[in-house]
Amino acid sequence: ISKDPKNAELFYHKAYSLEQNNQLSESLESYDKSLQLVPNYFDALLHKGLILLKLNQQKLSLEFLNNALKIIPNHFDALFAKGKILTNLGKFSEALPCFDLILENNPNSIDSLLYKSILLLNLDNTNLSLSYLDKILEIDNKHVLALIYKGKIFSKLSDYDNALLFFDNALKIEPENSFAIYNKGLVLSILN
Fold first, then answer.
1. Torsion, Cα of 118, 123, 125, 126 (10° steps)
2. Rounded to whole angstroms, how far apart are CA atoms 117 and 131?
3. Of 89, 90, 11, 86, which is closest to residue 100 (Cα–Cα)?
4. 125-152: pLDDT as tens digits
5. If exposure means fewest CB atoms within 10 Å of the residue's CB, which of 45, 100, 136, 160 is most exposed?
């Protein structure tokens, strides 16, 4: 870098290497230097946004991810991170298009299907949410979170027998899963 201090790619590679070694603040500095030289350097924008997300600086992360998406609008990692941030911020309707775009290109992306299902559940669209959970379970019939969320939906619909069935199926796979135990406990407390 000292021989070529105006080479944005060298700063990017240094930043990426630091990121891989979990030296996040040093990595951010190198991404900044890369972006000072080339403001629309997609990979630097993306990775800086992803690091900021790891550091729980969601709103700042969103700025960098949005700038990256202006360059490559359907990039999987940028869309997924943006959708995750918007979900965390409670902006469910704004997050949905991120996962829609991902699923157009990767219809079997289990994580995207799960996020979309959770968003739909939060938007009170239980039937469509269930259909996405069913798709996940077609791909992986032992997907614990999909089983738990199906249980949550049946609980929300006051179908407690089916809710318990799905929580029990999740607990057969992961007996110590606190999310499944908690939700099963909620249903049992309603029934008692």
1. 50
2. 8
3. 86
4. 999 999 999 999 999 999 999 999 999 9
5. 100
> What are the two backbone dihedrals, phi and then psi, of residue 124, each rounded to the nearest 5 degrees?
65, 30
pLDDT at 2: 59
pLDDT 10s digits, 180-190? 999 999 999 99
Say if CB 37 and CB 43 are below 8 A apart: no
- Report the alpha-carbon distance of residue 55 to residue 52 in Å, rounded: 5
Please name which of 95, 134, 137 lies closest in space to residue 116, comparing C-alpha atoms: 95
DSSP string, 46-84: HHHHHHHHHTT-HHHHHHHHHHHHHHSTT-HHHHHHHHH
Nearest to 117 by CA among 101, 105, 134, 129: 129
In 10 A of CB 18, how many CB atoms? 19
- Rounded to the nearest 10 degrees, what angle do helices 42-54 and 76-88 cross at? 30
pTM of the model as a whole: 0.86
pLDDT at 6: 80
Residue 171 CA, distance from chain mean position: 23
Nearest to 33 by CA among 20, 46, 48: 48
The single residue listed with the structure tokens 């239980």 is 126
* Alpha-carbon span 157 to 163, nearest angstrom: 9
